[in-house]
Design goal:
Length: 343
């Protein structure tokens, strides 16, 4: 299980420990070509503001030689139904530093983000949401961690006060549940991260259709760093992850990376069998050695409905896993590209 605690694969101030080897790696990693990947789904209300803010910040990184002049912003339209794609086309025509692709339909945020990561050509890739809630100034610290030897850098929220209580509590519970069930996620990390070209190459080897990048990236196993930031309020548009979708994403992560639900189902089955056996022994003892035994429908109907509900629940859990196997065996493409703003 991956946590935010330091480990032998956590990079940071290790230059003295490794000496010339890390110094040479840092020199080699100076001024990397950076691609900032931003998945977009119905973001017409906020997209221009996001591109302007992040584009200006990227330009400042180029001027200060933090990243190379070949760095750019990469926008992925995930089958939006509003004016997101026309805006991307217009912005791309204005600046060569802005590129965009349009997926043939809505594949979901995870697929759109993966499409951006696999299609770009850069030394390092940073993925960031279009809603401006992630602090873009953390990118410089992420690049610095990359120079210090990290192949993966996670953006971790240390302050969620901008979120409402109804969203903050389920979100934090979401990470705790995933960690409890053995899913390798970083607490309070969403999709804001830096990946090196080496990490992307290894991530390409993951061929599953049921995508959960928050669990896939830690499984790459390379040295990682953590950059903390305070989450900002959304400036426009609506959240694409209400509580219902958050629960769905959590379930996707659990069933894609853990067999715990199946083991829980088996454990419940064993406990219910023992409970039923004990109830049967009690009924026999009462019938032959007790007094005042009055048969009734409650002792029959209530256990029947209870056991029936438990059986249907766990059949559904098993069916979920079988459905994932079914989808994986089809080997369907995880995304399809319809248009590009450059050739």
């Amino acid at each position: 299980m991956l946590t935010t605690e330091p480990s032998d694969k956590t990079c940071g101030s290790n230059t003295e420990e490794h000496g010339p080897r890390v110094a040479a790696a840092s020199a080699k990693r100076s001024e990397p070509a950076l691609a900032i990947v931003m998945p977009c789904y119905n973001e017409a209300d906020v997209l221009e503001r996001s591109v302007d803010l992040i584009g200006n910040y990227l330009e400042s990184l180029r001027q200060r030689r933090v990243v190379s002049q070949e760095s750019y912003l990469y926008l992925v339209d995930d089958g939006s139904r509003d004016d997101t794609w026309p805006i991307i086309e217009r912005l791309s025509a204005i600046s060569t530093r802005i590129r965009g692709i349009k997926l043939s339909r809505n594949f979901g945020q995870q697929a759109a983000m993966l499409a951006g990561m696999l299609e770009v050509d850069a030394d390092v890739i940073v993925t960031i949401d279009a809603d401006l809630q992630d602090d873009e100034t953390c990118i410089e610290r992420m690049v610095e961690s990359y120079r210090n030897g990290c192949d993966v850098v996670y953006g971790v929220r240390n302050d969620r006060s901008s979120d409402s209580l109804s969203k903050r509590v389920p979100a934090e519970s979401y990470y705790r549940v995933l960690n409890f069930l053995g899913v390798p996620v970083v607490f309070n990390h969403s999709e804001y991260r830096l990946l090196s070209r080496r990490a992307i190459t290894l991530l390409r080897e993951f061929g599953e259709t049921n995508l959960f990048l928050r669990g896939m990236v830690p499984m790459v196993g390379l040295k990682y760093g953590i950059v903390e930031f305070a989450r900002r309020k959304r400036t426009a548009g609506i959240s694409k992850y209400p509580v219902v979708k958050l629960v769905g994403l959590a379930w996707q992560g659990i069933t894609s990376f853990s067999v715990a639900p199946l083991r829980i189902a088996m454990l419940c089955g064993v406990l219910l069998a023992l409970l039923s056996s004990g109830f049967g022994v009690w009924a026999l003892m009462t019938r032959y050695f007790g007094s005042g035994f009055v048969p009734g429908w409650a002792s029959t109907v209530i256990p029947m409905y209870f056991l029936g509900g438990i059986q249907l629940l766990f059949l559904g859990v098993i069916g979920e896993y079988i459905g994932k196997i079914y989808m994986e065996t089809k080997r369907r493409p995880r995304y399809l590209i319809d248009l590009k703003t450059w050739q």
